[in-house]
Structure formats: C-alpha cells, structure tokens
Amino acid sequence: MIYIGKVRPSIMEPPIDKSIIQFFSEYTPIKVNVSDNPEEQKKLKTIVIDGFIAGEMKALIRKNENLINRDCLILDLDDVTVSEIDLIAAIKQKLAKFAYVLYPSVSHGLKGVRYRLVIPLDKPVNEQEYKLLIYFFSNKILDGIIHNADQSNLTWSQIQLLPVLTQYSKQEQIIVHGGEKLFPISDGLDAAKRWLKDYKQDTGGVTSRKLYKNTSQFKKGGSRYRNTTTELFESIVCGCEEGNRNNRIAQITGGLLARAVDVKAVFELVKVANQYFTEPLSEKEVEETFYSIAKKELGAN
After folding, report:
1. pLDDT at residue 211 greater than cutoff 50
2. Which run of H or of E encompasses 100?
3. Is the CB of residue 107 less than 8 Å from the CB of residue 115?
4. Confidence label for 300 from pLDDT (cuts 50, 70 and 90)
5. Which residue ranges make up each domain of the chain?
6. If 0-12 CB within 10 Å is exposed, 13-18 middle and 19+ buried, where does residue 233 land?
7. Distance between CA atoms of residues 99 and 1, nearest Å
8. What InterPro entries does the annotation carry (predicted)?
C-alpha cells in the first residue's frame, strides 16, 4: 500500500493499492521553484510537497507505532561523492536486475547532487529488518557513492517527499526501472547479517551490531535501580511527536550537562535523539537549541 500525505500535519490519506513501480510510472510531479531562503525551503518541504510511505499502517496518523511494515527501502542520497552521471550509472550497475526508482530530491542542484532511491522488496519487512537493510545499503552497497549516510533514513515512520520538477530538476531525471524482479529479502538479510558480523565501525553515532539486536528477550531492569538519570537516558531513544521536539532536545541537553557529561558527547547524543523523532528537526534547529541551553548551563567564553 502507498500512503500519501504532507510532513505537516502527520495525517496520511487512505492507502493506494498499487505497486511502487506502477505508482511512480503514473505519477505526475508538481512544479515548484526552490528558493535559497532556508525558511522558504522548509515551508516547501513541510506543507507544500506531498510525501509517501510504502507499506502497511494500522492508523492514518504517522508515528512509529502505527507503521506495521514497509515494502520498500528508501534512501536519501545527500552526501554524494560522485557526479550526477556517475551516480545514475552506479545505481544502474548495482541494481540492474532489480526494480527501483531514482529521482532528484527537492534540494538537488541547490545543495549539490541529491537523489532519493526507492527499492521495492519482494515481501514486507519489520522495523529491525528495515534498519538492518538500510544500514547495509548505506555502508556497503553504496560505499564509494555516498560519504556519510543520512541517519534519518533509519527513522521507521519517516515520510519521504515525492519527486517535483524545479529549476534544477526535469522530468527525464526521474528514473523508473522495472527490472527483472523485486529485491529478495531473504538474500538481502543474509548478506547484511554476514557483513554486519564483522563490521566494527561506528558511523554517525549509530553503532553497527547493537542497533539491530532483538532486546525483547531480556527482562526489564529492577525498578529499585530506576531514577531520574535512568529516565533521562531512556528519553534519548524514546522518540517525540511534533510540537515538543525542541523541548525534548533542551531537556536532554540540560539534563546531561547537569550530570557533568562531556559537552561534545552531549551534542552527539542530542543528534542521536533527534533521529528517533517522528519528524526529525533540522540540524540547524538542533544546534540552536543545544547551544542555547549549553550557554545557560555552562556560560560562554
């Protein structure tokens, strides 16, 4: 199923029962002009352009607990290290047998080469399987194409914007490749697990192996050990709905600094917390909130 909606509000339209390839083959992008003003860009991305989620939802409110599964991998390719021509050629070579959709994101041209890659799967995946495959593609399959993976790709209920035509992007840049088959989940997960077993590197604050383990096998910690520090650290990965995200960043920043956590470590931890939000804040908003609280707690030189 394909659900359409805006970033704001987080309400999705009733699902469309089409394959992702059929949907994109029939989709007509709107035309927009992308301003170099950050506030205008934000408005365009949040309330003007439609986005989508492919999978199954149990309610039409976009949040992690309402998303049952996904049936496409979706990767934002923002930190591209090759030319646009080389990017398109590399994706074609790596995914030649499989169906995929590749199109410029709204920031393409204004901020360099920026594309979105959509890979239909042969069966739906749950959250842990999805994150493992995203991590595998970002760090293994796309190695040499992108530098630092966009960590928002790991957000389970993230909405991704549909293609638009801008002063930098044209219709012919939207590539819908039918392929011979859909990407096979069983093979993909096996390959990802083998690779991850030996992968030790920590990328962008997301640690490889521990992130994807099933923690439901463990009993809850004894309640007698719980305190405000326990709740503070848990809040880093609890996520947050729109409307309270800046407050959550401020609370985490202030709480960690008050406990004498190194200021650089606090900054990295609030960036991790942001990626668990239903809709992550921009890097600029996170930094502004962090520095505002840090100045109050620590003073400024």
Report:
1. no
2. strand 100-104
3. no
4. low
5. 2-186, 223-298
6. middle
7. 17
8. PriCT_1
